[in-house]
Amino acid sequence: MVFRAGEPDSEPSAHEALSGFCEAYWPPLYSFLRHRGHPSADAQDLVQSFFAHLLEQNTLSRADREKGRLRTFLLGSLENFLYNEYDRARALKRGGGRQVVSIEEHLPEAEAAMLATVHLSDAGCYDLVWASNIVSMAWKNLRSEFEAEGKAEWLEELRPFVAGGSAKPPSQEEAATRLGVPIATLRTWLSRLRQRFRESLRAEVGSTVSDPADIDGELRHLYQILMA
Amino acid sequence: MDDISVGLGTAKAQNETAGSCATCGRPLTQCGPNGECLRCLISLTFLADGEQPEKPVPRGRLTPGPLRYAHFEVETGADGFPVELGAGAMAITYRARDTVLNSLVALKVIDRKVAQNPGARSRFLREARAAANIHHPNVARVTYYGEQHGECFYAMELVEGETLEARVRRDGPMPLSMALDVIEQATRALAAAEACGVVHRDIKPSNVMLESDPSEALRVKLIDYGVAKVMGPQTHDGVEQTHAGFIGTPAFASPEQFAGAGQLPVDTRSDIYSLGVTFWYLLTGRTPFVGRTMEEIRARQTSELPLEQLKGLHIPGRVVALLKSMLASDPNDRPQTARELLSAVHHCYERFNPQARSRRRKAILASTALILAIASLAFGSWLYQRTGAFTPQERSIAVLPFENLSSDKENAYFVEGIQDEILTRLSKIGDLKVISRTSTQHYQSAPQNLREIAKQLGVAHVLEGSVQKSADTVRVNVQLIKATNDSHLWSDTFDRKLTDIFSVESEVAKTIADQLRAKLTGQEEQVIAAKATENPQAYDAYLRGLAYTLKTGFTPANSLGAQRYLKEAVRLDPNFALGWALLSYVDASGYLTQSLQPTAALREEARQAGETALRLQSNLGEAVFAKGFYHYACLRDYDAAVDYLEQAHRLLPNNSRIPQSLAYVERRRGNWEKSDAYFTEAEKLDPRNVSLLSQHARSYVCLRRFTEALAKLEQILNITPDDTDTLVLKARIAQAEGDLPRASALLAPLRLGADYANALETQVYQAILESRPAPVIAQLKEILAKPDQALGYYNGELRFWLGWAQEVAGDRIAARESWSQARIELEPFLKEQPENFVLMGDLALTNMALGDNAAALTLAERAIAMMSIEKDALTGPRPLDILARVAARVGDPDRAISTLEKLLSIPYEAPLAANPPLTPALLRLDPMFEPLRKDPRFQKLVASSASK
Fold it and tell me: Is the dihedral of CA B916, B921, B924, B927 positive or negative?
């Protein structure tokens, strides 16, 4: 996604890609700003201005060239932006800034994420929200794929075995009976489902690093962040 | 993307006190869109199929956050992860910060499994003790050992640089001369360890560091002393060591290390063997004996040395002989002690290292050079003028605490005094930037991480020193160090009689000025050479008094101690101007902060002392400052204070107390911008003075410049993490911005009692703003059940708050009772303190609450008459804030609104839960303004932006 979003000469698709990009990555940025002490309205404005700034500066293609990780790149850029552009950004009247992405609707969740991380540093909050965001997106993409294949219900049945949650998963025997397959088949399905999630997560992480060799390192980082 | 809730489906989970995941058992704090456990999901990537995620091991550390071991905090990198310096199978070494001494260390944390071997901890401790005893420039010192939650850890001196291994990997084999230099230094380390009876057991290129040093000198440090021995499992006599139990690194291990435990002693000779292999590695880039297994290596060690590897390297026969002796398979054929080895290595080093040779030659040439030097003097002085100018940044210095080497620890005051006097003399030189003592006093004397400290303080140079006082003689040693490369510019030792101590102070200051190429004016030359008193007893008393003033905080004990000794000093020498000046400052600050009883007599003593100092020495900066401070602190005569302080500022250009005082005075005069500039100036000289930073933050809060205030508060938290007052102020800012959830998140972890007045009031105010008063009612009742009489009228104030909380809870009867009690408690205090406008405000609000409108208005107006904005821009508007509240409640909306309009347009420190001034958000949330809610003028105020 970095590559596409940063492409300068394919105008309409670039803008589309950018707006998708912004929607995907605003939560950690917003939570970071809130954690740092900006009031909610300011944090919203700042995220908007920051994205507008990325668009103007064509910074994303630079990110690609510099072979970085999107996670650290975006945080670094935001910090630079705050440092260099803060006065300018503050001068933008609320709502008068460029509306790159609509975020109002999901503010409560982002607020909750910020409050749940008061024990962490600003950057720690950012990383945790980032990691959650990436894993969630990977799961969501997988779900969409299954929906497109007409297997949404099947996925719902198998979900507790791979994705945890508050409800205690049924026994594999029970599930096999309900699905009308032998238990060995169920186990094969589960194995495939896990494999597909791994691929989905790798793809998601892959879109945030410019060098595929970094995928494993980044995955390990995300793992450590979530498990801390 | 249609659904952007991804990753943040946490709201529900958070609010319902997140349960735990039925699969992995971890708290369900990170959930996907439909409650998926994100931890389970990411674990799939790292688990084999069918493998279940590991259930969390309950650890002692309950709250997540940065890794901490005792007072060491592991540093995190840009990615938020611990910075690892190295990791092995048995331990991880982190870069960590000693939060007490605020210095960096290498922290080695031994794997839990290793640490839990039977007896392991006692062996760790024993070895750490032994290693800590090795004091040698070539050994990275062990400075701390600790245990925590089943893990053992060591703190070691942090060596910035690279390992020999990294160097050879990068640059290939070393030239002989350099390798000899390295091995010679490493041998010196072995000799030092040998003297302490410590064997390293794991000498290898990755345990030898080359310290980075821009001055090109090679500095070798052995790391991890004492670690290897205890890393292996416990070995009783006769117990064969297995592969797993092998201590050391096979390619560098000695034959006796391969033998079973107890069969052959492992002593310094084993380290000598390993150092031999290391030497070989430096020269060739490989180890002499390689093998796929330990057995193979072991077998080859007894065969001939593969000397063909040295072919083409032009290694002299003498060095080959040295290598052979170090690598002898029988320990008895090697040099028997490190000292013996040192003599052999040194011989080669002297012979084959051209630098060592040139040093010898230099001695011969020195006499010739002298003649040349004289000839070039004229040219040199011209050159000095051309190239000698230091930039202002280079002419900056921090004087670190001096070490007290006196056998009598009671002499600490004397050491502090000498350090401060040298610092004070330096600070009188306008061409230098000298960091204030408040910012340096928390550092160690002679710390390891000079570069880091210099960076924190923003200076290029550091002065270290030590003082030894015995009877009437003093030895002062000082070292002037250039921080960027840790090089000594100058060091000297002065042995003097006590009566002659001034000459040391002025000589040191003078030499430093010369070294840093600072230009001195004639007057500056005079003041730094000045002798404050002819009477050594008076000076001793002065130093004792001075030491009290240098302690943190104005407590009655500190102020009384200082006052007593300074009075003694001026009694012994009535012409001691500096003594009089300091006495005046101690009195005046005691008066202002009430650490001394603020009586008329104290005020008079401050005046007289200041005037005496000025009469004795009219150009003494300290005397002029004392006079200015007296006008500020005792008379609130701001104009006169500013005159004197500005004059003192010119005399003492590096004294941060002066711009600090000017910042306070200008703030009271309402010159907020000027005050801001003085704060910034003071912070340059005193960058780590927490009270200065927090006052600056308070100014921004008064100005409603919350972003800047938060940035300052962050600076404070970087110096003193978890500082309650700072966290409370952050919460108050959140309240003023109308961000109650954030305020609540900040306040929730703090448990406070009545002694944290502002903090407690902030919590109560938060509960009132949130309309959730029940918990604070209980808390206040508990505190008031046993009121602390020392808190004076503050107990009455707390009763007022209790009444307010009870009213918000809808319990009008209880509220009335609390307010009546508050009035009974507050009134007698007003009789005693008829000018106390804060007390008047409290009583005005209490009467208002009780429905006694006339009394409330009268008191509010009396307070306004007593204190005005013109008299004090900081707290002067407080009575107006009270009046607005009273007018709103007693049905005078016109007056309330016009007062609020005024208040929203000016900066000030508010009366309730002191600090942020009223903001539109507070008007919207504060229930006291309820009666105005429907008034369109009020609604306009609430909607207005108060970012100015």
Answer: negative
